[in-house]
């Protein structure tokens, strides 16, 4: 795992959307010094898988990972962004939300990782923050979709234990098989 800034015991990094854009992303885009290295530089739209990036920077027990990443346009003159990552891609879940601090200062978009056939399909969520009028860098918050992980785990448990049984009167009954 890469070295990271340590917060005092009992403290967590929980910035607001305004903080992420006005304090962190603004300073990064304009080359101003940041007060902390808690937001890492990472090529999020590259060859590494989300879980590899997660493990490299945060280990297994992290809540959220914050990274600055350059945007990659699909063509030099176009406005479309390539959001491929590893063997999958980040797919948008909604339209951009305006982030305001007395005026619009940027936008937030939500994405989910898709890679059909992979155990990680849908398991990763990303929020991408863009500074108004800038498209060189974005700040991204990555997190695991623990609700989906639990739902999949429970579904597998039920399928493994549920067995259909037919008695001598040809009536179907469901029962649960206990594994040893």
List the helices and strands and how they pair.
Layout: H1 17-29, E1 40-41, H2 50-58, E2 65-70, E3 84-85, E4 88-92, E5 97-100, E6 104-114, E7 124-131, E8 137-144, H3 146-161, E9 162-166, E10 172-176
Parallel strand pairs: 1-2
Antiparallel strand pairs: 2-8, 3-4, 4-6, 5-6, 6-7, 7-8, 9-10
Number of strands: 10
Distance between the termini: 37 Å
Low-confidence stretches: 157-163, 175-180
**Helix count, DSSP H or I runs of 4 or more residues:** 3
Taking all Cα atoms into account, the compactness measure Rg is 21 Å
Series of secondary-structure elements, N-terminal to C-terminal: HEHEEEEEEEHEE
General description of the model:
The chain has three helices and ten strands. Strand 5 and strand 6 form a beta hairpin. The chain is of the alpha+beta class and 180 residues long. Residues 157-163 and 175-180 have low confidence and may be disordered. Strands 1, 2, 3, 4, 5, 6, 7 and 8 form an eight-stranded mixed β-sheet that branches. A two-stranded antiparallel ribbon has the order 9-10. The chain has helices spanning 17-29, 50-58, 146-161; strands at 40-41, 65-70, 84-85, 88-92, 97-100, 104-114, 124-131, 137-144, 162-166, 172-176. The two termini are 37 Å apart. The longest helix has 16 residues, at 146-161.
